[in-house]
Amino acid sequence: MACFAQGSRSSLSYIEEVTFGTTPVGNFQNIPFSTHSLNLTKDRVQGNDLIADRMPRVDRHGNKQVGGDIVVDLRADEYDDLLESVMMGVWATNVLKVGTTAKYFSIEDYAADIDQARLFTGCTISGMSVSLAPNQMVSTTMTVVGKDMAISATEKTQTASAGNTPFDSYSGDLKIGNVASSTTSSIVTAVDFSIDNAFAPTFVIGSDTSECLQFGRATIEGTFTAYFEDEALVNRFLNETETELEVSVDDPTGANLLTFLFPRIKINSADVSVAGPESRMVECSFVALYDATEGSNLVITRT
Question: Most buried among 106, 198, 266, 280, using CB within 10 Å?
Answer without folding.
Answer: 106
